[in-house]
Amino acid sequence: MAIHTFSLSEGTDIFSGTTLGVMSNLDARVQDLIRFIGASPTSFHATVSLTERLETRGFTRLLMTDPWEELPAQGFVVVDGSVIAWRTPRRWSSASTGLRIIASHTDSPALKVKPNAGFDRFDSHQVGVEVYGGPQLHTWIDRDLCLAGRVVDIDGQVHMVHTQAFARVPGLAIHLDRGQRENFHIDVARDINVLISQVTAENGPIESVASGVEPDRIAGHDLFFVPSEAPAVLGLGAEYLASYRQDNLLSVHAGLLGFLAAERSDAVQVYAAFDHEEIGSGTVTGASGSLLEHVLRRLSAGFGASMDAHLAWLARGVAVSADVAHGIHPSRPDVHDPMAHAVLNGGPVLKVNAQQRYATDATTAAAWTIACRDAKVPVQTYANNSNILGGSSLGPLMAMRLGVRTVDVGVPVLGMHSVRELCGIGDQKLFARAVEFFLAG
Predict the structure, then answer these.
(1) How far apart are CA 193 and CA 137, in angstroms?
(2) Smallest Cα–Cα separation from 435: which of 292, 291, 253?
(3) What gap in Å lies between CA 304 and CA 34, rounded to an integer?
(4) Which pTM does this prediction carry?
(5) Going by fewer Cβ within 10 Å, which terminus of the chain is more open, N or C?
(6) Is there a contact between 364 and 404 (Cβ–Cβ < 8 Å)?
């Protein structure tokens, strides 16, 4: 079985499914977003894309494993699927220098390949997977899937993988179980196995076939089956964008645009794109981990700040936790708050929760609202329906880890955690502008 891989530089036709006439009329930022989504099927690919963009803009890459003898004015680090970048202030003062952070996450729900995953059944070769995060699993059935991620060989070399579509989780015909219309249920161990080929003598381990690395040279892998369908512009007025991984590449992309556009100020400006939010953030590269904390300490140490001055600096800081928000579902308004809800193309959303599942409070809401006012960006406010618990974000975790006041915001979407989420095209440009003014504020 031959699976053809391609590198990010070779690329793919990520505009397939969208008329060229529509694409040519799109704002350049939206076209860039579509390219970014197409090039970033996993968190590891997203960091490659982010690295290229930061280096193009003159940011210097440092390693967490090296001492930082010199601190660049514009720098960044990459650790696995996470990126932390910074811009130093015009001048440093232990008594007054501020801190502004824009944080998002690079991962999305997916089907992660298990170790020793291949098995044969009824002349079909399948691959066993574990569910990563909380996908709407019914949307993954009967979808064309590709394989993406990384393989590490015995020499420690990382091989990036992003294949063309070749796999599928087959659904069960309605004729064979007519009760599924009224009582649809997915048994993950039984139903979510990925069909990749007929059984042949040529089949090898999927991680080897996809990466081109010989089986006995593979030391580890993080591989995911992900949807292969390209982003598409929808709506009679081309007002919507449909794609996989809007949660949370919308925030990763808008946050980067705002970060790069922000004017240098009297505050340290930080861009953080964490991995593993979808599985709780409790990892080295997640928002609950030590990565950002250590970067911030090394930044203040580069200016000679004592630990006391460092803690005072954090206490002056304000962070934005940027993740998508639920847009009101036009057919199910009953699951939304009747007053505090958001519509697509209505502007970025300020998220509030009494149980602090979002980190927003009055002071951080004011910081965001002022930035949006200065940027001439409308603000929508979202709260959960009081009968529904709702989700959370990396905001409370980051705030708890760092002691930095945080506000939760995002772009409204429909179908969150589906393989085909939907956002309003106009919101992305507004969100990036709001981030720019927040960081420079």
Answers:
(1) 12
(2) 253
(3) 42
(4) 0.93
(5) N
(6) no
